[in-house]
Specification:
The chain is mainly alpha-helical. It has one domain. Helix content is 70%, strand content 0%. It is built from eleven helices and no strands. The longest helix has 24 residues. The protein starts with 5 loop residues before the first helix and ends in a 15-residue tail after the last helix. About 2% of the residues have low confidence.
């Protein structure tokens, strides 16, 4: 299976973009621009994670997502379903089960990327409530792993990474902080493989309807 990166995906996009609907071509073009920026970050994992998340968001965010303010998780779950349906070479399964199974288990067991833990820290819920929610979520995730359920494993991973995204983009974490290096590094590495695969799948099934581009290009 060939290595996917900005250069290989840009060549493919240039070759077929005239045959793609404008909405999908715009989303891929935007995602590629942020992927290219992320690949230039070799020393700053915080920046790499942020750029990769923007690339991911550029790929999946549609007009429906923005204008109707759908819940992030439900939008992502539907997007994952469509990607898996288009993934004839099982690229996403390979990433989940062969490349990052260990890192994914660490994320699942990491309370610092689980929102109820922070709700408890703010005093919004009790310690028992967040602990119960954490154990329930871990049980759900481990059941998905046990069943080789790629869709729901990816959903949990993105849910965890979304908390990390919030911490960084909303200034709720210190740049280059020693206390969150493991999840930042693992999150960036996972997104670094997921994002090119997602762009590739959208390119190869671009004539399917993926939704209109949010904020279309206006001359």
């Amino acid at each position: 299976m060939e290595q996917l990166n900005f250069d290989t995906l840009k060549i493919r996009h240039r070759d077929i973009r005239d045959s793609l609907p404008e909405s999908i071509s715009v989303r891929i073009h935007r995602a590629l621009s942020w992927l290219q920026r992320a690949e230039k970050e070799t020393d700053d994992e915080d920046a790499r994670f942020i750029f990769l998340w923007i690339a991911f968001n550029a790929a999946y965010a549609s007009e429906v997502h923005v204008s109707q303010n759908n819940r992030e998780r439900s939008v992502q779950l539907h997007f994952i379903e469509r990607l898996l349906s288009a993934d004839k070479q099982d690229r996403l399964e390979h990433i989940v089960w062969e490349e990052f199974s260990g890192s994914i288990r660490l994320l699942i067991n990491n309370k610092y990327v689980f929102q109820p833990f922070w709700d408890y820290q703010r005093g919004d819920i009790s310690e028992d409530e967040w602990q119960e929610a954490f154990q329930k979520n871990k049980k759900y995730a481990m059941l998905a792993i046990g069943n080789n359920d790629t869709k729901n494993v990816l959903a949990v991973v993105l849910q965890r990474l979304y908390i990390l995204r919030n911490q960084l983009l909303h200034g709720l974490a210190t740049w280059n902080s020693a206390v969150n290096r493991d999840q930042i590094r693992d999150g960036a590495n996972i997104l670094g493989r997921l994002v090119p695969a997602i762009i590739y799948l959208m390119l190869e099934s671009g004539n399917n309807y993926w939704g209109d581009a949010a904020f279309p290009v206006v001359e």
